[in-house]
Design a protein that fits this description.
3-stranded antiparallel beta sheet, alpha+beta, 4 domains, Arc Repressor Mutant, subunit A, 14 strands, globular, 3-stranded mixed beta sheet, 17 helices
């Protein structure tokens, strides 16, 4: 079985559970663009499907892990929109080749690849192997309006690519809108799409630099404590339900430092412990094999050498892009909060230099995405909808994401202000 990288297969998929899962693609001689494939059942969870954008490696069987796909776009409900996104991304990708070539005085596609195999390039996630680019060059050259030799062209070719990109972009309304806090519809779409990449046209995402910027954030302190204690324990035998043993779960819970002390009867009594355990599993810092929990080599390295900016960003990406936020609080109809979390960060950028009321952020969010109200009205009473949106926004965006990862200070449980860490991680271009 061959493991594919994100560049070797584009996949749209439903985020049904926060676990790694193998996607069995099968024999590509029987697959074509747009085919749906079924993912094997994992630990009793329901099957779900994905859309194959292209499969290309002869008559062999392939597999990949959801946790390895850094460029997944969640358009399972709208394949046409997914196709448009891929076309736009391919145009941007080709332009990146020219940019890289000009930086290194080269116009040869093979030179670009050699450069990317040895040097870091900010457009791409650190976990994506540049060698995979060799396998998609031919696909990229098939963009309408480009011939197979486009990669070795001159400035006229660059202008041609700009025209292609503009044709894609002008399909949307380019006017700034008040309900989007000054963004156009296109910019809002790109902002949400760019949550899947390192940097983009709306915001540049940076590593936070020195450990002192992030090592005292709640999520890092909790994660480091978990790893240290698990390393001391060696291996932990799971319960019959696959949870942490009670004594270990209680120790992790007590380390959170909550004012209200609780005696747990199970790991599942604390959503914080349960979330942390799943997050560390998905990040690859701990593992669960043969009904036992243990630390991985990556986890041991973090303990012995200290956590780095790359580790922090990896954990952040794991939480925002792979972990299913619906898993722990069970509120229905608010999945959009995760898929549009970058807009919530944009609101903090616009208004969070000084303390701003969470209610104001919630009002701004519902103006941009009013259909969240319609979604909730199917399940909850109309009189309760705003309170639910406010509660879930504070829980998922403010507390679990922004506070735990060190992006905001919280005042009186009602106001927030952005931190220096937030400003270091996100440099906005609008």
């Amino acid at each position: 079985m061959k493991q594919l990288s994100a560049w070797e297969i584009y996949l749209s998929q439903k985020m049904d559970f926060p676990f790694d899962a193998e996607i069995i693609v099968g024999d590509d001689s029987q697959l074509k663009d747009g085919d749906r494939v079924v993912v094997e059942k994992i630990e009793g969870y329901d099957d779900f499907w994905g859309i194959i954008a292209f499969v290309k490696f002869g008559k062999k069987k392939y597999q990949t892990m959801l946790s390895d796909l850094e460029l997944i776009d969640v358009y399972s409900h709208n394949y046409k929109l997914f196709e448009e996104y891929i076309a736009w991304y391919e145009a941007v990708f080709v332009k990146a080749f020219y940019k890289l070539g000009r930086m290194h005085n080269s116009s040869n596609a093979n030179d670009y690849i050699s450069i990317m195999e040895t040097e870091e390039f900010s457009l791409f996630d650190e976990d994506i192997e540049p060698v995979a680019l060799r396998d998609v060059i031919e696909e990229l050259s098939e963009i309408e309006g480009l011939d197979g030799d486009a990669y070795e062209g001159d400035n006229d070719d660059v202008e041609e690519i700009d025209i292609i990109s503009e044709e894609i972009l002008t399909d949307d309304d380019l006017c700034a809108l008040e309900e989007f806090q000054g963004l156009s519809r296109t910019q809002l779409q790109f902002l949400c799409d760019e949550s899947l990449t390192v940097s983009g046209s709306i915001v540049e995402k940076n590593r936070p630099g020195k450990p002192e910027y992030f090592q005292n954030t709640p999520i890092i302190k909790w994660g480091m404590f978990f790893l240290e204690q698990l390393k001391k324990a060696g291996q932990l035998k799971a319960t019959a339900k696959g949870n942490l043993p009670l004594s270990f779960a209680q120790m992790v819970y007590d380390n959170f430092g909550y004012e209200r002390k609780r005696k747990l009867n199970s790991e599942e009594d604390s959503s914080s412990v349960n979330k942390l355990r799943h997050l560390l599993l998905m990040a690859g810092w701990i593992k669960f094999q043969k009904k036992k929990f243990s630390i991985t080599k990556k986890g041991e390295k973090i303990i012995t050498k200290g956590i780095t900016g790359n580790d922090y960003i990896h954990l952040l990406s794991t939480y925002t892009l792979k972990f299913n936020w619906d898993y722990l609080d069970w509120y229905q109809g608010v999945e959009i909060l995760q898929h549009t979390f970058m807009f919530s960060l944009y609101l903090l950028y616009k208004k969070g230099d000084k303390f701003v009321e969470i209610d104001e952020l919630v009002n701004d969010y519902t103006k941009a995405f009013p259909f969240i109200i319609d979604n909730l009205s199917k399940t909850y009473k109309t009189s309760d909808i705003y309170d639910i949106i406010r509660l879930v926004f504070q829980l998922r965006i403010i507390n679990n994401l922004c506070y735990n990862f060190g992006f905001v200070e919280i005042k009186d449980d009602n106001e927030v202000r952005t931190t220096e860490l937030f400003k270091k991680c996100y440099v906005w271009k609008v």
